[in-house]
Write a structure and sequence with these properties.
This protein has 353 residues and is an alpha+beta fold. The chain has eleven helices and twelve strands. It is 33% helix and 26% strand.
């Protein structure tokens, strides 16, 4: 049985309504679903679905974007970078840093660092020069610490709201057919052009995507299906965090014996608020981004992690609350957490500084 919704106009001041959440959930499952399919799943007219989405995206409350999967992008090196500023960095410097296309994400946090960033580079040397010559020399920056990302087994494109029934989710599930990318196939220039275009608008119509990438519509359609079926391209529909049931974001820095990493990741997948799990070659080989309902849950979540993974030797060595997110997976955010612009990832592969 498909749930029915009635349309109301405008986003209530208290947040998105039931239909808004259902619409976002639908696009989390199938980001490029036609409005006819979305409407059928939600029990509404396709025009209503399109109009609702236009309002959400136009106000920055929700957005769809795309990027090459961090741990499948052989042409790049990614790292979690801690930045110490002594508790102060001028707003114009923060804005400039967020606008830098090397900065995939940028957060102000509590705890042992002032900023936590995810950075992309073309090589280890490029990463060292970027952090040493660009970031470390900014006015107010006292030091940086680099944690090279070796894998990203859990990331935001896999996170879901809980608004739809199993039948609705099944109806929306995308079918990429038999188009697959070979596991060892290198990233093509066309792949980066596709990721760059979808970084601005993940629902860009195929004809526009073809024009943006300089190939025919059938060619870009085939390549897009291959990238999605092979897990090389992530498409995500994001709802501004303050509008979700998880208004608080926390980052946990942990360590687990290398031989237990796979088992630890499997156990972590069941956490409802887990947004990203980075495996790094650094002091902390696990860095977890988790959304929680309240500040008190920062501690109960840590207790849950410790108890659930104690047998695997997990130690949470530090935790931080995100005070402000300036950039999230290429999206520039205002102080409300709404999108105000995009700096697409994978624009042409990170270039030398």
């Amino acid at each position: 049985m498909t749930m029915q919704y009635s349309e109301t106009h405008g986003v209530p001041s208290a947040g998105p309504d039931e239909l808004d959440l259902a619409l976002v959930h639908a696009l989390q499952i199938n980001t490029r679903a036609p409005w006819s399919l979305v409407g059928r799943a939600l029990g509404i007219d396709p025009v209503t679905a399109a109009r609702r989405w236009d309002r959400l995206s136009r106000t920055g409350a929700a957005w769809v974007d795309g990027y090459l999967a961090l741990d499948r992008d052989e042409g790049s090196v990614y790292a979690q970078v801690e930045i110490d500023t002594g508790g102060h960095l001028p707003e114009d410097v923060l804005t400039s840093l967020a606008a830098d296309r090397r900065m995939l994400s940028l957060k102000q946090t509590s705890g042992g660092r002032d900023l936590l960033a995810i950075v992309g580079a073309s090589s280890f040397d490029d990463l060292a020069r970027y952090t040493g010559e660009r970031v470390s020399r900014l006015p107010g920056v006292r030091g940086t610490r680099i944690h090279v990302i070796t894998a990203v087994p859990v990331e935001g494109a896999q996170w879901r709201l809980r608004s739809l029934t199993p039948a609705q989710r099944a109806l929306l599930r995308p079918d990429h057919g038999d188009a697959t990318a070979a596991p060892d196939e290198p990233v093509r220039p066309l792949d980066r052009r596709i990721a760059h275009a979808l970084g601005s608008d993940g629902r860009m119509p195929m004809t526009e995507l073809a024009r943006a990438t300089g190939v025919s519509a059938p060619t870009v359609r085939r390549r897009l299906r291959a990238l999605l079926s092979g897990g090389r391209l992530s498409l995500r529909c994001t709802l501004a965090r303050p509008l979700t049931e998880f208004p608080v974001s926390a980052v946990y820095f942990g360590a687990v014996p290398a031989e237990n990493l796979d088992a630890a990741v499997q156990a972590l997948r069941t956490l409802p608020g887990l947004r990203m799990c980075s495996i790094t070659a650094g002091t902390h080989n696990l860095i977890l981004d988790i959304w929680v309902r309240s500040l008190t849950e920062v501690h109960t979540t840590e207790a849950l992690l410790n108890s659930r993974l104690a047998q695997l030797g997990l130690r949470i060595t530090e935790r931080a609350v995100v005070l402000r997110t300036l950039k999230h997976a290429g999206r520039l955010l205002d102080r409300r957490g709404h999108s105000v612009g995009a700096v697409p990832l994978n624009s042409a592969g990170p270039q030398a500084t």
